[in-house]
Amino acid sequence: MPRPAAVIHLTPEEEKSLVQCLRSGTTEQRRVERARVILLAHQGHTTQEIADTLHTRPARVSKWRQRFAKHGLAGLLDTFRSGRPKQYDEAAERRILAHLDQAPPEGYAGWSGGLLARALGNVSDDEVWRVLRKHRISLQRRRSWCISTDPEFATKAADIIGLYLNPPDNALVVSVDEKPSIQALERAQGWIRLPDGKALNGFSHCYTRHGTTTLFAALDVMTGQGKTGHYRRRRRREFLEFMNEIVAAHSDREIHVILDNLNTHKPKQDRWRQRHLNVHFHYTPTYASWINQVECWFSILSRQALRGASFTSPQQVREAIDRFVAAYNQKAVPFEWKKGVVHPSAPKRNYADLHN
User: Fold this and answer.
1) Are 222 and 243 in contact (CB under 8 A)?
2) CA pair distance 309, 307, nearest whole angstrom
3) Are 172 and 255 in contact (CB under 8 A)?
4) How remote is the C-alpha of 307 from its chain's centroid?
5) Which pLDDT band, with edges at 50, 70 and 90, does 3 fall under?
6) Rounded to the nearest 5 degrees, what angle is found at the Cα of 74, between the Cα atoms of 71 and 80?
7) Which of 207, 247, 253, 340 is a plausible cystine mate for 187, CB 3.0–4.6 Å?
8) Does residue 151 surpass a pLDDT of 90?
9) Helix, strand, coil shares of the chain as percentages rounded to 5?
10) How many helices (H) and strands (E) does the chain have?
11) pTM exceeds 0.70, yes or no
12) Per residue in 213-254, pLDDT tens?
């Protein structure tokens, strides 16, 4: 005997909810179908009539009528499904992660997902990649770093950061460095339309060299303005000539100069500093020139005035730099240094060390 059809009587609230479900443009189609089944049943249609109207099976209509009669609107929701049983457990995940710290197979410089799966033997490629994505591990992406080994890192860093955060009254604090061998490269430039329709602005990989120039720069930490000098070479002589210009412009002030450890900055017998007692040099820790703010200014200069530009002589490079400096200084603001304490970082040898 066929099961008798469940009688459906909707309350005004239930009917309103089902109608809203039909009108919503984001409702899943399976929920829309169930709402139509219940609304048609409420109007007195039989199971077969509803099945013919919705082009579905009578058993499907009967199922949702029975579910609604028993549980109301909640009966139209999908019940929990456990899904496919897990093929791999936490032990397999730990094996995958532990294998990252072992040497790759002979002939390979590093691991890939496929190599890991083959080395483990009973773990699929998909599972390896799932674990790597879960722990946000990238096997292909590599970065380079420069780690400071200076035993006086903390003392030197604190000295320089103190100048950034609390500069002496009526003193000039400047970050000084050189950008040597800036090339004057001449190459074709313009717009190109890619096959996908995207328009890109770029330049040809072919170029002609027209010589180089060396840039000396001093960034005023308190105003953000830059001062530059152009030279053919980077020697002690050029460095002192540039420093003499800074001292001459601020002869009545104490001058604190932040520098890296280049040999032209710190000779064994520094007679120049003995003659300029109002100038104080502060050296960044070894391999930590990133503390020097002028490096940030060099990055801005390269991106906005030099990268991708075409020059036919070193003189054109110098003129482009001077135009940029003049425009930049008109709206310059100091870099906002927020970090009061910095630490030298070091990479971990093994992935397991990241959790220790």
Assistant:
1) no
2) 6
3) yes
4) 21
5) low
6) 105
7) 207
8) no
9) 40, 15, 40
10) 12, 7
11) no
12) 999 999 999 999 999 999 999 899 999 999 999 999 888 889
